[in-house]
Here is the input.
Amino acid sequence: MAPNTQRDRHTDTQATDLQVDAQRLLSELQQLAGFTHCEQTGQPEVCAVTRIVFSDDDMQARTWLKGLYAEAGLSVREDAVGNTFARWEGAEPGAGAVGTGSHTDAIPHAGMYDGTVGVLGGLVAIRTLKRSGWTPRRSIELVMFTSEEPTRFGIGCLGSRLMSGTLDPAKADALTDSDEKTLAENRVSAGFHGELSGVRLPSSHYQSWVELHIEQGPLLERDGIDIGVVTDIAAPASYRIRIEGFGGHAGALLMPDRRDALCAASEVILTVERAALASGSIDTVATVGTVAVHPGAVNSVPSRVDLQLDIRDTEPDRRETVMLAVRETIHELQARRGVRIHMDEVNADLPAHSDAAIVEAIEAACAREGLSHRRMVSRAYHDTLFLSRIAPTAMIFIPCRNGVSHRPDEFATVEAMQNGVAVLADTLRMLSA
Here is the structure.
């Protein structure tokens, strides 16, 4: 669909009466960013944030957020994995709720907007609706998901996977971190008790779900578009690959006798890149994001390398074509280089498709706010991907500077956040009526 760049309000719509306090949102984002032990650069608009799930920073941030929820008059509950629900009770409490929210955990040396705009922006949207005098018929529920980032346990969207029933609770509890401490041990130490089987929500819990997020890409800013309306979320998959060769002294082990695991790993990495580029679609993206070399000494031939591969596509079949090329390379490398290669699938998820009625509601809200918008695909995946298994969903994107994310210079303007919250609030109002 061509972008709607018409900024005049449509003749069949009226401007909303929603007054968004975007400066308060910015202030609270800055306060939330303070729950980190990252060394700061001292540069304006550059804020390094590390907030790993169940760390001291994460737990302090959760306590602070619950204080904001209570101040806003929302009831709060937490489940066994730490997903946090802040609920504005509607006139019909038994009706399926309208949900919104995102995550507040952050990978090492990330920025202050990823996920957090959806949590604090959702709170500001609720405050805005309350201040306008709105009374929802359906309850509106704000969710802060546990461990959207895969940093600690190697799998992303942990909380939403459990909520949607797409991750086996026993397997989840057995996941380990770098200290070989299980999720079960971590969550109990953090104060989250009970069986993970109780985290799953019934399909009737949410009548609709909308997540606000920075784009994490350059298209909206590049084209001068205010709002992105997400129609599809790419299907993510991740793999762990171990290459085992034969190492030894860098001076004494002769070149013809080597089975260098890192050289073999480099061929795997380049195959990933070539195969993704050969797919013919910009929606195919593949990344080897970690390389752990053993023993990791300049004067030692690498004997073992561990890789982590992230691959995403809106079409699972196209994603699988890339993986077929990787498997063929692995088979050929084992024969030619004399190495052993093991590949384990961590996850291979299906894409999400937005609900047409919610997409139309977001577009109607953009029209009432006089904001340009375009329909677009999310190549990054979000908790909404898994909520789509149990509820109709869609997402609202706002521009971020240069499309940068997962870096300290990640940035969204106050105006962009104000626009996003206004559209979210108006959409929540329509869906909760």
Notes: The first helix runs from residue 22 to 33.
